[in-house]
Write a structure and sequence with these properties.
The chain is mainly α. Helices cover about 50% and strands about 5% of the residues. The protein has 3 helices and 4 strands; from the N terminus they run ααββββα. The protein has a two-stranded antiparallel ribbon with strand order 1-2. A two-stranded antiparallel sheet has the order 3-4. β3 and β4 form a beta hairpin. It is elongated, with a radius of gyration of 33 Å. The protein starts with a helix and ends in a 22-residue tail after the last helix.
C-alpha cells in the first residue's frame, strides 16, 4: 500500500484534484443510491404500520392487543392555594413536595370523601 501512497504524493496538484472530484462524484452517487434504498425499505415498513393503525380505534396497539381503557382516577389531594389536584399516583407534584419540606403533612391536603352529592362515583 505504501507504493500507492508514493504514487499519490508524486502526482501533480491538478491530477490529484481531478481524482478527488471523481471520487467525490462516485461517493455522492453511492450515497444517493443507498439513501433511495433505505427510503424504499422505510416506505414498506410504514405501509405495514398504516395497516395496523387503520385497524385500531385510535388506541395504541402493543403486542397485537389494543390498549384497554382505564377508569378515570379521582383526585385525592388538593393544593388550597391554587386548587391544583393530585390523584396520589405517580410522582408527587412540586407544590406537595415543597409543603412537606416546610413541615406540613400530606394528610392536610387530602380531599374529604363526602365532597359531592353522592360522594365520588367510579367510572
Amino acid at each position: 500500500m505504501s507504493a500507492k501512497k508514493v504514487e499519490l504524493e508524486a502526482m501533480a496538484l491538478d491530477d490529484l484534484w481531478s481524482l478527488h472530484e471523481e471520487i467525490s462524484a462516485i461517493l455522492s452517487a453511492r450515497i444517493k443510491a443507498e439513501k433511495r434504498e433505505l427510503e424504499k425499505r422505510l416506505a414498506v415498513l410504514n405501509r405495514g404500520m398504516d395497516v395496523i393503525e387503520e385497524s385500531s380505534d385510535s388506541r395504541p396497539i402493543q403486542n397485537g392487543k389494543p390498549r384497554r381503557k382505564y377508569p378515570r382516577v379521582m383526585p385525592k389531594y388538593r393544593n388550597p392555594q391554587t386548587s391544583e389536584t393530585w390523584s396520589g399516583r405517580g410522582k408527587r407534584p412540586r407544590w406537595l413536595v415543597a409543603a412537606m419540606k416546610s413541615g406540613r403533612k400530606m394528610e392536610e391536603f387530602r380531599i374529604s370523601e363526602g365532597g359531592g352529592a353522592k360522594g365520588r362515583q367510579r367510572a
